[in-house]
Structure formats: C-alpha cells, structure tokens
C-alpha cells in the first residue's frame, strides 16, 4: 500500500508559487472546487523559456494565479509550448487563455484534443439528450437523474473552448525539452489517449492521472461510449510502465510526487481485481442495476459531483465482467440489470 511509497517532497507549493523537484523542473499546484481540491502542474525549463504541462480549470481564480506565475516565479520568460496530458477540465480547462496569452501552441494526443473540443462544443440540450437514456438504463433514481441532468454539460462549464489547432503527440515519440529527451507514453482507460512523459536518463515520469499515489484514477463508462470496456484498456496500459526504473520519480497530477513505481502498479491492479470480485459476488443472487452496484463498491457518502463518476466506475467493472462472459445483461423497460452466469 502507500506506506511502501517514498514521498521526497512534502513542501507543497502554495497558490502562485513553485517548487523545484529536479533541475529545471518546477512543481505548480492549482486549487480545485471539489473534494479532490488541487491539481499538480509542471513547468519544464526549455531553452530561453518554459514548456507547461496542464492548465487547471478554466475559471477566474486559476486565470489570476497564472498571471501571478507568468510575471513572478516563471520570471517573465516565454512559454514555448503548452502540453496537456488529457482532456479533463482540470487539465485542459484554461488552454485557450494560456495559448492566446503566451502565443504557445497546444500539444496533445489526437484523441484528447478531439474529444475535449467535441465535448466543449456540445450544448446542454444535445448533452442531456445523450445522457438521459444512459443514466436511466443504469438505474439512477428520479431525484438523482433530475439533479445530474439539471447541471447540463458540466464539462463545457469548466473549460474554455479548446483551440482549433494543435501539435499531435504520438505514443513512443521523443520530445526534446530543455536538454532532456521525454518519451511519450500513451495510457488508456482513464481517458482516450492519456499522455505521460518519461525521461529514462533522469528517471522522471510525468504521469498525469494515469498513475496516482494513495488514490486510484477514475475508470468510467460515460454516455458518449455506453458499451465501452475502459477497465481492460487501463489494466493493459499499466504494463507500459513495468520496464521503467524502480527508482523513477513519479510526478502525478494529484497528491504528492513519489517513488515506488512497481509497488504502485501492483496495488492499482490489485485494487481493481478486488472490485471485480466484489461486483461479481454481489450479483450472484439477484440481478442488479449499475446504480445498485455503487454502494457495493463505494462505502463512503458520495456527493452529486462524485455520483456520476462512481456510477461510471461501477459500470466499467460490470462491463469487464460482461465481456468475459462472467455476468449477463438483461434489459426491460429501458433499465439494464446484470446477474452472474
């Protein structure tokens, strides 16, 4: 468990501040208005300027903190590029402001740029038309359904419009940044084509949300891909990190930088194996909806922001079991239930 991990940096940067975690590599932390109340961002020295990794939310508070950073701790030096690990709003939310403010181009994988831009352009009406049958099929009760749909397209509310042009990052390519060569490692499951950056020479891994300490990245089914199998993709992606040095310093998007990569990979796989066992056992007697699986897999209280993530993650585990012939789906009156084969 996380007691086996090493956390070498306990001095967390405050708003508008930075901490150096390796020569020419700065740690930035931005606030989030959720239970998970922060995101880690990174500034990599890049010749005369900086490469920035991720943006924070597209809100006024984050925008103001970036102005402080660009004028102060980043010493007024130019931003040479803005690299986003994936499309989620805490990672790509302020992309337009930063690219327009600095003149830098967005760098991202095709899947993340395209999905983020598509979702940011989707109005509340089309979003609700897509989401309503999905959540009804999952067995969400009427009060929960009304609250979730009443928020409309929450993604578009947390991001600025994604820029129409970008530089594509491809799995396996090398990106030179400030004297280091960073290999692009694309993970799947948490997002379509999540970009991680690995510098083998200095044993550094910017892991985004793909590998986190203490918490596990959300692996969910969402209304846009209702029959997907993201858990299989995520578990397969963990294998891409096994060959990395065990002393690699992992720079995650949430919580603290840490060492203990192989231990953490094993813990992440074991976590999902345990969840799969719990889900399979729960539906052994009576067919269950996805909503009925949520309290089986999540023992704590969930607020309305967390509920769609929990429901999506419950579905991801059910779909893994279904696609391997371990549970069977039955649909009646627009609601899907699953039972053990």
Question: Biggest sheet: strands side by side, in what order?
Answer: 1-2-3-4-5-6-7
Helical residue percent?
25-40%
> Main beta sheet, described?
7 strands, mixed
What portion of residues belong to β-strands?
A: 15-25%
Topology, number of strands: 14
Q: Rg from C-alpha positions?
A: 20 Å
Continuous helix count = 11
Average predicted local confidence, pLDDT: 96
Structural class: alpha/beta
What is the domain tally? 1
Name of the CATH first level: Alpha Beta
Order of helices and strands: EEEEHEHHEHHHHEEEEEHEHHHEE
Describe this structure in words.
Helix content is 35%, strand content 22%. The model has no long low-confidence stretch (mean pLDDT 96). The protein has a single domain (2-261), classed as Ribonuclease Z/Hydroxyacylglutathione hydrolase-like (Metallo-beta-lactamase, Chain A), CATH 3.60.15. A seven-stranded mixed sheet has the order 1-2-3-4-5-6-7. Helix 9 packs across helix 11. The two termini are 33 Å apart. It is of the alpha/beta class and 341 residues long.
Short description, anyone?
This protein has eleven helices and 14 strands.
From the structure above, extract its key features:
35% helix; five-stranded mixed β-sheet; Metallo-beta-lactamase, Chain A; 341 residues; 22% strand; alpha/beta; seven-stranded mixed β-sheet; 14 strands
